[in-house]
Amino acid sequence: MADAEAVWGKRLAAARVVPAPDGWTHAPQWDPFEAYLLPFFERRVDGGGREFATLLDERHLNAANVAHGGALMTFADAVLGYAIWDATDNAHCVTVSQQTQFLASATAGDFITCLPVVVRKTRDIVFVRGDFMVGSRPIFTASAVWKLRV
Amino acid sequence: MNGDMSAAPAGYSPVFAEAGFNKYVGPVWRADDGSHFRLTVREIHLNGGGAVHGGMLMALADIAMGKTVQLALEPEGQRAMTVSLNCDFIGAVKLGETIRTEVSITRRTRSIVFVTAVLAVEERTVLTATGLWKVLGTGGDGSGG
Fold first, then answer.
1. What is the pLDDT of residue B141?
2. Bridge partners for B102 per DSSP
3. Minimal C-alpha gap between A117 and chain B (Å)
4. Angle of helix A69-88 versus helix B54-73 axis, rounded to 10
5. Domain tally for chain B?
6. What CATH code is carried by the domain that includes residue A65?
7. What is the pTM for the complete model shown?
8. Does the distance separating the beta carbons of B56 and A78 come in below 8 Å?
9. Which of A63, A132, A133, B104 is least surrounded by CB atoms within 10 angstroms?
10. Is A18 a residue whose pLDDT tops 70?
11. Which value does ipTM take for this structure?
12. Contact, A85 vs A4, CB < 8 A?
């Protein structure tokens, strides 16, 4: 597998260090916006994939003190992108379209997890989706189309 | 690192930038005549490739669309929340560029508001979005209505 650091350059330090919960490690972050906004955790699952998680804090809330759609969509974009990297040997790729449905609200202190699924991969396009959970409660779901840069 | 409130452009007001997400990533400015919203790209908005992160573009759409819905419902004392947002990424945006967002409400029913947005840098469209906002208190949302 091509080294992500060689593909994307120096990994970034998070704007705020949030300790990883037991069983999770910090995923490397390569995008300034993600490092600025989101704690980003990962763990290996049976079968070789990665599950991802974030922990909401006051940076992610809207005026009603629930998670802002923008923060959740950013987490989804990050998770789905990492799933595509894993499926494509860290190919350069960009989001073409993302559909997000907001099912229930989340707030500061909620630990959101996602085990993304690469649904189909063609030469140029990857279809990917994920359900985002707090425990067993679905919070939002996202599906996306990504273009591989060839 | 947070938005510099002293840099308010003439004729614009910030969109809820007192706290939380909008303060941390913004502020996003709304034209006082209601015609559009704007955001000038800072380094924190970028991805590893030097373009604006897709999450920030979707966030900008959500902020502008949500504010537009809020202002439409406010006279009747109603509120709404995003239930669905679909975004197509049409072009990249670079550091220092100003993104202009125009929002329109396509249809408003008793319980749902249909909204579209176009994000552009000068004449170049960079993202289009369609979304649904649920009007709170009209049943089925657990808000007691």
1. 52
2. B118
3. 19
4. 150
5. 1
6. 3.10.129.10
7. 0.93
8. no
9. B104
10. yes
11. 0.94
12. yes
